[in-house]
Amino acid sequence: xxxxxxxxxxxxxxxxxxTDGATVSLEGFTHLIPTAAGHEIxxxxxxxxxxxxxxxxxxxxxxxxxxxxxxLISSFVGNxxxxxxxxxxxxxxxxxxxxxxxxxxxxxxxxLAGAQRLPFYPLRSYAxxxxxxxxxxxxxxxxxxxxxxxxxxxxxxxxxxxxxxxxVQAQRADRSGNTQIWxxxxxxxxxxxxxxxxxxxxxEVVADExxxxxxxxTVIPAHAVDAVVACPRGAHPAFVQxxxxxxxxxxxxxxxxxxxxxxxxxxxxxxxxxxxDHAAYVAKLGEERWAELAVGEAWSExxxxxxxx
Amino acid sequence: xxxxxxxxxxxxxxxxxxTDGATVSLEGFTHLIPTAAGHEIxxxxxxxxxxxxxxxxxxxxxxxxxxxxxxLISSFVGNxxxxxxxxxxxxxxxxxxxxxxxxxxxxxxxxLAGAQRLPFYPLRSYAxxxxxxxxxxxxxxxxxxxxxxxxxxxxxxxxxxxxxxxxVQAQRADRSGNTQIWxxxxxxxxxxxxxxxxxxxxxEVVADExxxxxxxxTVIPAHAVDAVVACPRGAHPAFVQxxxxxxxxxxxxxxxxxxxxxxxxxxxxxxxxxxxDHAAYVAKLGEERWAELAVGEAWSExxxxxxxx
Amino acid sequence: MxxxxxxxLAAVASRELAGANTVFAGIGLPxxxxxxxxLTVAPEVEIVYESGVCxxxxxxxxxxxxxxVLITDSEAVxxxxxxxxxxxxGARIDVGFLGAAQIDRFGNLNSSVIGDWHAPKVRLxxxxxxxxxxxxSGEVFVVMRRHDPRSFTAELDFCTSPGPDRAxxxxxxxxxxxxxxxxxxxxxxxxxGVGEELRLVATHPGVTVDEVRAxxxxxxxxxxxxxxxxPPTGDELRMLxxxxxPARVYLR
Amino acid sequence: MxxxxxxxLAAVASRELAGANTVFAGIGLPxxxxxxxxLTVAPEVEIVYESGVCxxxxxxxxxxxxxxVLITDSEAVxxxxxxxxxxxxGARIDVGFLGAAQIDRFGNLNSSVIGDWHAPKVRLxxxxxxxxxxxxSGEVFVVMRRHDPRSFTAELDFCTSPGPDRAxxxxxxxxxxxxxxxxxxxxxxxxxGVGEELRLVATHPGVTVDEVRAxxxxxxxxxxxxxxxxPPTGDELRMLxxxxxPARVYLR
Lengths: 309, 309, 252, 252
Known about the structure:
The complex is a heterotetramer, with two copies of chain A and two copies of chain C. The model of chain A has no long low-confidence stretch (mean pLDDT about 95). Chain A has helices spanning about 10-15, 35-45, 60-65, 85-95, 105-115, 130-135, 190-195, 210, 250-260, 260-270, 280-285, 285-295; strands at about 5-10, 25, 50, 55, 70-75, 75, 100, 120-125, 140, 155-160, 165-175, 180, 195-205, 220, 225-230, 295, 305-309. Chain A contains twelve helices and 17 strands. In chain A, helix 2 packs parallel to helix 3 (about 60-65) and helix 5 (about 105-115) packs across helix 7 (about 190-195). By secondary structure, chain C is of the alpha/beta class. Chain C has a single domain (about 5-245), classed as Glutaconate Coenzyme A-transferase (3-Layer(aba) Sandwich), CATH 3.40.1080. Chain C has helices at about 5-15, 30-40, 70, 80-90, 130-135, 165-170, 210-215, 235-245; strands at about 20-25, 45-50, 55, 75, 95-100, 100-105, 110, 115, 120-125, 140-145, 180-185, 185-190, 200-205, 220-230. In chain C, the strands form four sheets. In chain C, strands 2-1-5-10-11-12-13-14 form an eight-stranded mixed β-sheet, sandwiched between helices. In chain C, strand 11 and strand 12 form a beta hairpin. Chain C starts with a helix and ends in an 8-residue tail after the last helix. At the B-C interface, strand 6, helix 4, helix 5 and strand 10 of B face helix 4, strand 9, helix 5 and helix 6 of C.
């Protein structure tokens, strides 16, 4: 059983799978944010994308400022705990960016419905909220079972989200796309399964034997993956558990950068459009900065999968 | 933050949490079947239980033969690939055991609804099947979204399953109930979250540091667990990945034992009612048999969780 | 060595897998067929097991779909919610293999009871995941060792796993084609999708159309281009015997 | 050292946690309060973070709910589907902590926009998981540093996270009580559940009822048994300063 080799470059993966007008899901909850992929989308000048991302943060602001995005599907639009997303706020406040608002679990349930090919997914949120009034995709269903009090029970539902392509960042994968994540695993598996195509960006492409020594660690199996991109430090300024820490200073700085449209444009020209690829961006950040983000060791205890004697 | 110590004996756990007339979920898909817990239920002579179990196999047949069960909720009633469950078949064919029939995913979705406190869970099974005609709990809902062809879309749904107690077997837990499973993880987490109370039976209670070295391996967190029972070899004749292999000979033998009601009664008297506890059952099986089920080593490669420097 | 029924069925089934990427299969004949296909017509085809194992590399031949040897060295073990929700219902399976106690002319299957469900003559295991395999696979292959009128029946005692025709009659649009191939010791029945009956499309050497029709509980249609099945080739047999199942666990 | 506003609010909030087993909390004041409660009134209380971390044992004070130091040495990291589906919606949380830009007299919260949603004066981050915490926790505590009429408003510009009264009006039975405590720099507002308005139940030493009413955008009711909040005790302050946040990351 030869495993198909799906490794490719970021440039080729984005060129092939992210097309103008596509719906692109970029997931990763604080941890493992696919920043490098976002930058490459900006470099290639994609237009008119619908971006789906639970926590629309720095990379989303950058994609919007790069004029790549016409529509945003999200449940949190803020620069983590560090402030605001300048460009996103300006455009939403000016009515220049379409915004579909959900709660976190609403987004999760949209991915769950998408991954499971369900027409809708029920959840106990939205009751009494103004969000359904501004988002007609959030609807109600009557349960065919009686409520605990014997009466009729209603529940809100959300529709499936099926991105044209989902891009996630992970610690490691083998060449065929078996992807292992530890620390926060987020909604990555569901976002991948919900998508028509999936790109996995990893810190390392590892030998098959590494993956196969711990199959429970594989969060996304190869059959759901179309491209594997090795891109070390691809999540910066986000962190990758066991690889590098969060660049808190960058997040704080971003509130300043993005507050000023001209400074923001300059930043994109210098750091994204002015770098050939993510390796150049990483080098430009400099080893001193990376040294500050280095992490020490805390190894998991191995478990025995056993072997028939 | 002192962790509450929830360790107890099997006898006490069953006595406290499994009461006559209760709905008891016993999950574990071929792997990690809570056999020892089932035997203790027989020893304590519980009556009128509703047993929920996707793959109703040997331990279910034993519980039925032990006169503990009046109702069964299941999606597969067979002795794995080894033959039949004699007592279960006899009683169902005689109309002496109430049986609620589902498919595997129907059962999974019942647990998902139970764990998520949903009034129903939709799934793309049952369309055109005769099962809904014999199981009125399986109903239909109309989607509030148009079908791909623009028309109305219907989908089957199942109701939540909320056992009074769920009992699962696992490789290891700490004293407060953080439970780690590797190999097949089955539906154990959902069955535990769906339940009012949960007993976790483990091969080993381990030091807190072992669990904390690999938090992603924790399938069931302490807050969902009420009792932790150390019971080595508690899954026999099922297997525990990395601990012991499946006792295939026992499964084949069971088809013979259970085919004959008298022989079956004799087996229960000798092996279950005739043993004081699972340690006695394990000893009675004998070291020679256990030596045949011993497994070798196949260790996972450790991963680095990292430490802030 | 003469060709066993298992060798015959495995070889014939393997040829039907050309073009498939993901196959949902149980242990035994289906896995033999897929393993042979990996060596012949579908080198990249992947087996997904009901237990959630993907990319298995077992050191020994597994005895069940959840055998410990399937897990060790595998590429991924999916939680059951992912396997049934994202892989099966998510329409990631091209070909599913199923067996059954009874099959009808449209490929609907019964694995629940013989007789009346409420007072069954024989209580069978039930669906397991069969209903999900039928509802969600691109197409379904059925391998039945014994081709007789009790199994190939005009009217099922109970429909556990319905094909797309019954789903449509129930007002629900099915994903896949349902059963497209039934491979038996007499020949191959086939249908292409919704609305079609199974037709006899091929017979094993020495088997007559009348024999197959007599062994089928309904008035079996015969394809206009009925062919004779080529017996397993020397290469196929050698691979089955030397590479796939050298201990002859399932080739017996 | 004089008592900071953070110390005051953390100490007061911690006392309200007696009896709680599971608390859903963000980083900052809520975690300070829970950490202090673990040392005082609720030794076994567990914090569950929105990131899915349970039983965290961080070697350093975390900067976000998803900080790497929360994961290393923790007891469990749950998938997001489990955290939101089984823990939150599964009603496993006794007390949830929330903040907001605006709160009304029934404890409904706005964290989406100031102004009209379609053309907002200020676009705020939105719900995140706040709507789920409100809908599914047994009760909700709100900590607001600044008590002023713009935040404590008669009419929300937009209701992001509705309490149980709004849920009922929408025809849906809520699980919990909604907001039961609002702890501010002026005092504590409280309500016991469905149908009740927030009442002023306690003020900080030196704060008058009129000051609180003037700082509240609706006609605030005053509890018949209004009390004065005991300032942080020496023990509480010592534990906050020495054990909980010795680097004064959040006590600033």
